[in-house]
Design goal:
Largest sheet: 7 strands, parallel
Number of helices: 10
Strand content: 15-25%
Radius of gyration: 19 Å
Length: about 325
Amino acid sequence: MSWLVTGGAGYIGSHIVRAFSANGIESIVLDDLSTGRKEFVPDGVAFVQGSICSARDLDRAFEAGHVDGVVHLAGFKYAGESVKRPLECFHSNVEGTRQLLEACARHNVMNFVFSSSAAVFGTPDVDLVDEQTPTAPESPYGESKLIGEWLCRDFAKSRELAGGSTFKWTALRYFNVVGSGAREVYDVSPHNLFPLVMDAVSNGRNPKVFGNDYPTPDGTCVRDYIHVQDVAEAHVAAAKKLQSGTTIANHYNLGRGEGVSVKQIMEMVAEVTGIPFTPVLEPRRAGDPARIVTSSAKANADLGWVAIQDLEAMVDSAWSAWQLAAQTGDARLG
């Protein structure tokens, strides 16, 4: 039995593949390598290069092994960029998810873990977001992730009405995923805070802060940062629950319940790297909410999962992975 991991050559996806392997679960990776990297896929893992928007590519991936479930991460990932490129975002995240669900029906694969996002909440007016907090996305990216959840919900309902095999699914709503659980894998995004800071600091530049006039204690955005290895372990827990037939909820928030500002991140980077710097202030980015922090109590209770790595571990592991890539000449974004 194997799980198909779409986007499995990406930063988060490749960590999930490694976590699956450590727990005795085989993976098949489908990735078009538009943002993923083939070298992030561990040796011995089946790899299919292709797009989730192609029925042919999807069939090739499902036929690469006996697929028992799907972890769906592939897609357009950047909230700020989605404001500039909404049609591209919707094509990848909505049409791609629709195509993938059709492929699940063709191949009778009924276990599904969907990569969702805190972006579905927009800027909530509560101190701690939970699964009952109303969704109000503020970017095409957040909207596309919410639509992806709706597609899973409605597909499951259609299976129920038709009397077919039960489609068992859950959406894991990640908050800000950072760090590294394997030194050879690092976040390559040219839009995410951690890789931008690592790249700047290692090359003698001052990293940028986008906005310092938010309604937060120090004026910079506050987020709930979570280590990528903790996120990967949550996927293992969810996949095992679904495969065992255990009934779980359709939505879980993944975070640490602790708000950390961009300014605090900068201070921790300076402390961990030993490199002093003065951040450059830039205007706000469209689509960035001021503050969003979650409670993961539901995931803790239902999945038996808890985030265990703190901010220092996140920064230290990210810096270590970036340094290794720099030593081998592979440290690049995009």
